[in-house]
Amino acid sequence: MKRTAISAAATLRASTAVSGSASATLTRMAPVLSSGSSKREVHEINVPDWGHYKREAQEGGESGGRAFSYMVLGTAGVGYAAAAKHTVIKFLDSMNPAANVRAMANVEVDVSNIAEGTIMTVKWRGKPLFIRHRTAEEIADAESAPLTDMRDPCPDAARRKADKPEWLIVLGVCTHLGCVPLGGQGEYGGWFCPCHGSHYDTAGRIRKGPAPLNLEVPPYVFKDDSKVLVGVDSV
């Protein structure tokens, strides 16, 4: 009986010792676990924030995209402008007369049959053209006329070729209202427009009447002594 009581007491002490050892072990582990948990929390707080760099990269990408878009639009604009210029030039060029039409706009006249003191009338570009073979007296009158008395002053030398003063070529259209004046008439022996009374001298200059300007001198060139080409200044 006494031996049984001693065994029971020993067993109880052993159980208590084991229980205490386990409690001590758990107590010692608790700080370790707690410490590990603290380290994880600190590590998570100290993770760098990369958002700033991400935002800069995104903004840089947007700026680069805008620059590329502007370059594309600028290149397209230059291309469209060049195409428009080419189209306008082609359109304007198409409105110019063709080479054969320009050739028909010039007229070649044989002046060898025009006697001195007479006037030949030909058609040029749908208008009458006066070709006058002037006499020495008519040339002298034209050269000596005072420019101060003229409405549209112009020397005779500026209205004919220097080496052929005997030939005067003018459009047969009155500068007042477009009538056709009569040759060899009027107060100055040149032309007279009966519609409103304009008088021109032997150089085709307005001397009296309502016409504001002299008879127009067209471009022309003598190919030789007997042929004149009207419509161009040179050949």
Provide an overview of this structure.
With 235 residues, the protein is of the alpha+beta class. The protein has a domain at 107-230: Rieske Iron-sulfur Protein (3-layer Sandwich), CATH 2.102.10.10. The protein is 44% helix and 17% strand. It has four helices and ten strands; from the N terminus they run αααβββαβββββββ. It has helices spanning 2-45, 51-95, 99-104, 136-144, and strands at residues 107-110, 119-124, 127-133, 167-171, 182-183, 191-193, 198-200, 206-208, 220-222, 227-230. A four-stranded antiparallel beta sheet has the order 5-6-7-8, with no helix packed on it. The chain has a three-stranded antiparallel beta sheet with strand order 1-10-9, with no helix packed on it. The protein is elongated. The N and C termini lie far apart (160 Å). The relative contact order is 0.09. It catalyses: a quinol + 2 Fe(III)-[cytochrome c](out) = a quinone + 2 Fe(II)-[cytochrome c](out) + 2 H(+)(out). Its EC number is 7.1.1.8. It is a single-pass membrane protein. It is found in: Membrane; Mitochondrion inner membrane. Pfam families: Rieske, UCR_TM.
